[in-house]
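Methods: example folding runs. The two proteins below were folded one after another, and each record is reproduced exactly as written to the output file, sequence line first and structure-token line second.
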Amino acid sequence: MKTTLEIINRALEMNRKTAIAYSGGTDSNVLLHLIYARTDARPPVIFADSQMEYPETLPFIESVCKRYGAELHIAQANRTPLEQWQKTGWPMLGKLAARKWMQTHPDYGFKLDVSRCCRDMKIAPARKVMKALGIDLHFTGQRGQVDDALRGMRAIKDGAISYLKGDKMHVCNPLLGWTDMMIRRYSEENNLPIHPAKERGAVTIGCLYCGGGAQFTNSGFKILRRIMPEDWKRFMITWGAGEIVLAIKHDEPLVNVRRAVARLGGLEYLSEARPWIFDHLRETPLEGYDK
């Protein structure tokens, strides 16, 4: 805690106009409480609406900001998620894994790029709003290696406070090094609000359609299928993501998958008869990954 507050205060002492990047998730709630309850700073809150959020997310964020008296700004990309995926790549396999997959599968008829999805649908719109407000330093709830391998490597390289040359902005990540247990303990001790989707079975509060963790036993696709079946069907069937899942899972070009799906009765039929085949991006999901 002492180190975390030192990082926050060091960032505040830089005398820059600050903001908090806030998603409504557990880590974000810890960050918001740390700044509003343990410092005199009252930075505005920036919520990047990816258009892939749980329906409870915006009302929850509005209620939390009202609780703290925080000024809320909402950022949104000028394209839909499907337009993004068709242009730059589908958000599956995780950032590093998707890059490696594309290096060995360049001619499979589709692209994977989780990083561009995050960047174009969330990060860029949020920073556009920040720049319009004159913000030149923002806090995030990212936890480095705990969240993402690439984030962990960047944290080692850049430290808790870094300067993003391309965006001309400083970013501060005070929660680097926090574990799940530390987050849980702080949340319970301070009675922090819990996103209502957690009660319905959501594990993480982020983009509904992200397949970054769907190769593991704790699949976001499986959770989506169980708690929001209509949204799952729109993603897998209407938007055609089910074909991409099967192509990755069975290591087959998209044209082969479409032929096989047609022979088996089509995506609609498979979604009713064997919906679990779309849960994972591996034929044998890895065990023991409970993040």
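Second run, written to the same file directly after the first:
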Amino acid sequence: MTATGSYLAARSKRGSWLVRMEDLDQAREVPGAADRILRTLELFGFEWDGTVVRQSTRTHRYEAALERLQSQGLVYACSCTRADLARLPQNRDGEAVYPGTCRQGARETSLAPALRFLTGLPGRLTAFHDGLQGPFAQDVAAAVGDFIVRRRDGYFAYQLAVVIDDAEQGITEVVRGCDLLDNTPRQILLQRALGLPTPAYAHLPLVTEPDGSKLSKRQRSVPLDPARAPEMLYRTLCELGQLPPPGLLRASVGSLWAWAVENWDTAPLKELSHVAV
């Protein structure tokens, strides 16, 4: 559903739609999964522009950005363990709110440290206008504290990687799921620190379980069936608040996309907080 929303947002403006594989955590990568994702997109009629960017090949770019932050004194080493973090207060998303324990220096120098971005003191809001959710502001220091930009195992964090990739790919609009809304202020802080442009953002409603929890791979989520691509695309358009004519229910994927691009309407999405399946 998120891919459909972002695709239509781009194509309805005659813009480009880019695909990026965010595969930084190589230890958790399932062999062949990325290729299966791309094949599924093709079978459902998605056509992306340019080459697919794989974050696992771009660590040198993230390292360069990290060095720039370090030169400004905006990054510090943190030796806190998972056990240490588990004892901290948590925010509504279950994340530990980091109080800056290691700001004056890592307490345990024998451990490989994580690197955290210095957010500053609580009380300062980072605000932006979301294309679907409206005005949004967050006190990052109070909500999450100094956040990780490189993990203890050496992998770069999502927050830093997407900021660099968005800038270098010339991204003008990010359309993604509402579960990432709270991440956006952190990314804006990094963009400002690195002198990078801030794209427009639009966060789509989430697909949820009937009880309101996020759809989980461990529960009722099932693989997409390309043989049912037209039917599933029609249903997805309906879930996104679009109103495809009933006659398109048995149309081809190409016909569905043609109608959807010409008739894309974001107004219904602004009334949706989630879509239960």
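Comment on the second run: The radius of gyration is 20 Å.
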